[in-house]
Amino acid sequence: MGEPTLDQSTVEAARMLLERMGISPSDLVAGAPVRPTAPTFADYVPIVSASVTPGLRKAYGTYWNRAVERWGDRRIDQINPSEIRSLIADVKANRVQRRNGRGGRSAEEHVISSLRCLYRRATADGFITEAENSALKVAKPKRLTSTRRALPDSRLSEIYEVAVSSGDDPELDGLLIRLHVETACRRGGALALRPVDLDEKQCLILLREKGGTFRWQPVSPTLMGYLHAHALERKAPPNAQLLRYRNGEPITYRRYDHLWVRLGLRLPWVATQQISAHWLRHTTITWVERNFGYAVARAYAGHAETTGSDVGATAGYVKASMHELANALAALTGEAHPLGSAPR
After folding, report:
1. pTM here?
2. Taking burial as the number of CB atoms within 10 A of a residue's CB, which of 4, 135, 203, 282 is the most buried?
3. Sorting pLDDT into bands at 50, 70 and 90, what band is 157?
4. Fold entry, domain 41-137
């Protein structure tokens, strides 16, 4: 493809304007800032990877590696949108086929998001301008409605009973299920929990979740007791991960994978519908919304406050208090909470 041509009348108009301003073309060249030469993908990806959070590295690392495999010796400012679309097509064609897959939409979204992250860093580092960000010129696929939904009490009971009556560590698995049901936390929040994040007197835990967010979440006195005992019995250091195996090693996301595979073997509907810990989050948040309203449910979920959303500007004013969260938890668990209303 050849260089774009300029209309001669446009060039002449620009020349006349510069003359009136007393500026020559050489003045423009001399005064232009010197931009550093853009690095190659092979050189720049490791720099960006080292600068992001572990969560982002986990989410985008695979796609950055694919970019390095494909364009390793090319500069990051040499890739056009068509080449990005070609990479997307290749990733979708070679993705792992899962039963709950949606035609590669997630893979496509992750490729674009990972490259946008890379190019945002390149823009901040002065290697490209925002107008030269090729990843912004590739639209993300429209997200489909989630298939997750709230589970009925009977199904939730089945999951808990199987979790605490099978496997090599039913105590740990039962604690995981109860933690997610009571707090509606994400897996990352559970794995990041530390003994120092337990406020035993007020029955609060500090959840650190995606996007670097922090929030105090109420838990029942019973769950607080279980968490404290677990930390002591499995010798979790105060500032290290709380949830651990019997041998004292911290658990990882793989514990969740093994748990839900085992549950699926004993409860066929779990495997068929691809139930996961995130379904427990949906279940609890839905229950809170139905019984205590949208504002309390949003706070319970730890969702960021937004403006201009589909719920209107009022959402920015109706903030739930810790007292309200504690009352919702008390109703959910049937246990009084220190920060809630006194039982009537």
Report:
1. 0.71
2. 203
3. very high
4. DNA polymerase; domain 1 (1.10.150)
